[in-house]
Write a structure and sequence with these properties.
There is one protein chain. The protein has about 450 residues and is an alpha/beta fold. About 50% of the residues lie in helices and about 10% in strands. The strands form 2 sheets. It has a 9-stranded mixed sheet. The protein has a two-stranded antiparallel ribbon with strand order 10-11. Helix 1 packs antiparallel against helix 5 (about 75-105), helix 8 runs parallel beside helix 9 (about 195-205) and helix 14 crosses helix 19. The relative contact order is 0.09. The mean pLDDT is about 90.
Amino acid sequence: MKQNLGSSLASFGLKQAFSYLESNPQKNMPQLIKWAEKFDWKGNYSREIRGVKKSLSDPDNNWNIFVNKFWELDPGIRKKTFENFFVNGVFRARNKLDESRARYQCNVPWAILMDPTSACNLRCTGCWAADYGNKMNMSYETLDDIIRQGKELGTYFYIYSGGEPLIRKKDIIRLCEKHNDCMFLAFTNATLIDEAFANEMLRVKNFIPAISLEGFEKETDSRRGEGTFKAVEKAMDILHSKKLLFGVSCTYTRANTEMIGSEKYFDFMIDKGAMFAWFFTYMPVGVNAVPELLATPEQRKFMYQQIRKFRKSKPLFTMDFWNDGEYVNGCIAGGRNYLHINANGDIEPCAFIHYSDSNIHETTLLEAYQSPLFMQYKQNQPFSENMLRPCPLLDHEHKLAEMVDKTAAKSTDLEHPEDVDDLCAKTVNAAKNWKPVADELWRQAPSPN
């Protein structure tokens, strides 16, 4: 009771602080920083406060520019994002998640990634979704129940993938309306974003697209199909013109890493209005996977260095799903911070790990979190003392196979079930070759704390 009261008061205080800031950001930001210094009497956040203070004192600092870009968004979008992401998704969720994890002795995720459909209007090279077609869908009622169960345990952030999730855009908007205390994001090819859908986003205010790109026109169209890049540019222009919040999702492969990591590409994303970028390395999952597209160790190191360099100079919030393990203590899958539910309802540890021993049509979320496969993740995380080797598939020979073999988990690929040893065999050389590079980077890396 006392903890819940404290959380409610903190949420109320944050909302009041935001209202105060909203009235005159440039004038009131310094005062809010002074208040933060006053209330942080134990000095728990002194390093962060100093960093914010230093950044905002310099008008040319990239993070000062980033904050000012946030205030260029639609006011309703700005307010809803702050309330749902920071107030609910961070402060309100923190106590509920801690309570659930302690009570049930299992991982409970901060975010749930789920596929409304396996259908997609594109057929990208090396993508497993191209194998499934439109054969699998989760009903609106199932998606709604996943969110209801998740909120009871403390999860307020939901991400859609697929397939192409915007094939189900009407149901996605309905879920945004019903669960208006949650934040929703979708990894989308953006070809289905038009004026009408952008207006719906503006109305509900709690949906954010992360647009998939492979680089510029040549790189994107070579993997996603001719004309895709121009369609994406048009969608980005619509979103930017309506002052909507959106970002970019980038998969780097052996064929496009140098372009994805270039300053020219970062500047393109920023100029188009993107506020964030998520970076993924290609994973050879599925029967039609192309292992030759795996990035080399040198390319992965290049992305590690480029992203960190641009964090100091570009007004763009970036996340590297593999190379940022040092900030999140390794692998975040298996429900530790996130999990994946595919369009068939199979509850998987990760979007790239297509094995499961639970299905949402047969078990609750909590039962899945306590399942043998998810408990294997909990017991083995982190998978290395080197947080630049976070992944049990890409960074460790046969580690995923060991965990799967200890459980009743089965391949969730309905078209071409893949033996876990066959999958791991595709990444053995990548793991071996990355280890010495990662170990050297880890020895040189400054502490994130």
